[in-house]
Design a protein that fits this description.
Elements lengths: L1 E2 L2 E2 L19 H6 L4 E5 H6 L3 H7 L2 H5 L4 E5 L2 H6 L4 E3 L4 E4 L6 E4 L1 H8 L3
Parallel strand pairs: 3-4
Antiparallel strand pairs: 1-2, 5-6, 6-7
Length: 118
């Protein structure tokens, strides 16, 4: 499969970098293993490091030091697992941070333009 940051052969192993890091490995070590696609989580990236940090860094790819393909899931699992912090509206999912209580609205457009930005 040809994506914006190179070719990823399918099926593939995709390590999880939920909060913009694969624990215990540098991006260079991950790439040396032949990994061409990693998975982030929009909900967790929105909480930590946050969109301000990601924007200032130039996007998730730059922040993570990852030049290959990246898939960012919608954070949909959190709709169920963190339902006590979530309100579903016509606009999207309104989350309250479990850390600060600060509200964050995740919509399809927010997810794609803010968290997944190159």
């Amino acid at each position: 499969m040809k994506l914006a940051h190179g070719v990823t052969m399918l099926p593939t192993f995709m390590p999880v970098a939920t909060q913009a890091a694969i624990k215990g490995l540098t991006p260079q070590q991950v790439e040396s293993l032949g990994i061409t696609l990693i998975l982030n989580n929009a909900y967790h990236l929105n909480l930590r490091p946050g969109t301000k940090v990601l924007d200032e860094a130039g996007g998730a790819h730059v922040f993570q030091g990852w030049n290959r393909n990246m898939l960012t899931d919608s954070g949909g699992f959190q709709l169920v697992s963190l339902d006590k912090f979530t309100t579903i509206t016509e606009e999207g999912a309104l989350f309250s941070s479990p850390f600060t209580g600060e509200p964050t609205m995740l919509t399809v457009n927010y997810h794609r333009t803010r968290v997944e930005r190159d």
